Amino acid sequence: MKVKELQKTVNIAWSPLPQNPIYLAAGSAAQQIDSNVNPTLEIYSTNFIDPSYDLELKASLPSQYRFQKVIWSPTGYDGAHPNGLIVGGCEGGHVMIYSAAKMLANEEGLIARQDKHTGPVSGLDVNPFQTNLLASCASESEIFIWDLNNTTTHMNPGTKTQPLEDVQNVAWNRQVQHILASVFSSRCVIWDLRKSEQIIKLSDTQSRVRWHAIQWHPDVATQVWLASEDDQAPVVQLWDLRYATAPAKTMQIHQRGVLGMSWCPRDVD
């Protein structure tokens, strides 16, 4: 049942669980065709008591760049950023970091910007154990780890994968804090940051998948779901890292390529 809608082409992120009221961050999508629309990052309030479908605009900032990915980290809840940090992965290799509290106070919300990536920043994820640790990915097999408290430097999880290829997405394991997954169009590489190296590579050679989205199982550390954006193979696959030669389960319930997945935090089944 639809309860709210936003009729804009945007990439979105929900405010983290401690946040009350619930907000939605929306950044103008890099994928949209209309170049006449000035890019913005906006925050909306979700008043579910209001019977209308409209979201209430609470803050809006102009942006130099359009957004490939938007996430919202609880970093700073107990300090300088009581509403957390909104991070945008943008065109041209830009990672933009905003204070949600400053945006809601109608102040200049952009607090940091890094331009170290090659090509558009396609994926972002915050470590669930250390929410100041941000993983980002872009072209040429680039994966960077940032400290949101000090973004002047970054680290690599290990040696770049070969051949060089666009990284579609990254995701931290929900049970083991030093394990990170990275998704390429035809493979998924699992990294151990303590060893600074790749430990597992997943590849489905039996189908025409073009992987894009990834989600770790919230409770089972060895299970990861991968989704294909190829319209000819719109599948979602479950892989178990203990038996990494083939997917444990393949589901084809979509008619077009799958662009995103999300677990319900209240009911992981």
UniProtKB/TrEMBL annotation:
The terms under GO molecular function for this entry are: structural molecule activity
Give the protein family.
Belongs to the WD repeat SEC31 family.
Q: Where in the cell is it found?
A: Endoplasmic reticulum
Q: Which organism is it from?
A: Ceratitis capitata
Source taxon at top rank: Eukaryota
Q: Which residue ranges contain the repeat WD?
A: 114-156
Protein name as catalogued: (Mediterranean fruit fly) hypothetical protein
Gene3D superfamilies listed in its UniProt record: YVTN repeat-like/Quinoprotein amine dehydrogenase
Q: Reply yes or no: does the keyword Flavoprotein apply.
A: no
Q: Does the keyword Protein transport apply?
A: yes
For this UniProt record, give its keywords in alphabetical order, as a comma-separated list: Endoplasmic reticulum, ER-Golgi transport, Protein transport, Repeat, Transport, WD repeat
